[in-house]
Design brief:
The chain is of the alpha+beta class. It contains 4 helices and 7 strands, in the order ααββαβββββα. The protein has a 5-stranded antiparallel beta sheet with strand order 4-3-7-6-5. Strands 1-2 form a two-stranded antiparallel ribbon. α1 runs antiparallel to α4. The longest helix is centred in the last third of the chain and has 49 residues. The chain starts with a helix and ends in a 5-residue tail after the last helix.
Length: about 200
């Protein structure tokens, strides 16, 4: 009977494992996507604030920041913030030298870059200043995103472990109940005389 029991466990559990892994991946994506979108939205808000600080000096646009404004734009709990403003030809008109010009975007776009040691999430926001098209880039380190990913993964794994435990109990109980009639028949056969 143990051979049949182990065979039933295999038949029931083997197809279930890919379903569980798919469920874990789906839950992770569904939980992390809104958080990533919120972080990206915050980058575009910073870009809009920077765009409002662009002024004209002669025939050229310039980014005028006071020390206080610069500090306010970089204030972030958990991540370092970088920004720069570029002309369409890649000429930097202000901001951090650390950020490279990554190219034009027709609309707001996001990229993952690593210009130094740490990876950065970058928002590129087209900005029209008077008659010129500029690009405001705002980037931040990924500490908050990484921490959120770990928390979501831990929560997803925890709920999946509970689901595994409950499923094993239910499958074990179902197999035990399903094999009871066979156990009774086996007992009746064993109780019969050998010559019967």
């Amino acid at each position: 009977m143990d051979g049949l029991r182990s065979r039933l466990y295999k038949w029931l559990l083997v197809p279930w494992i890919p379903l569980l892994l798919g469920d874990m991946a789906g839950n992770y994506y569904l939980a992390i996507k809104p958080a990533d979108d919120a972080f990206d939205h915050a980058l575009t808000n910073t870009a809009a604030a920077i765009g409002a600080l662009i002024q004209r000096e002669g025939r050229n646009p310039v980014l005028r920041l006071t020390a206080r404004t610069d500090t306010a734009l970089r204030t972030d709990q958990g991540d370092a913030v970088y920004f720069a403003v570029f002309r369409a030809n890649g000429e930097r008109i202000g901001g951090d030298a650390k950020l490279p010009f990554v190219g034009e975007c027709a609309n707001i776009c996001f990229r993952d870059i690593a210009p130094g040691q740490k990876p950065l999430r970058l928002a590129i926001v087209p900005y029209v200043f008077e008659d010129e098209r500029l690009f405001v880039e705002v980037a931040e380190t990924t500490n908050k995103r990484d921490r959120m990913g770990r928390l979501v993964a831990a929560g997803s794994a925890g709920s999946s472990l509970v689901m595994i435990f409950v499923t094993l109990i239910l499958i074990g109980g179902g197999i035990k109940a399903g094999l009871k009639p066979l156990e009774r028949v086996r007992g009746h056969i064993a109780a019969r005389p050998a010559r019967d």
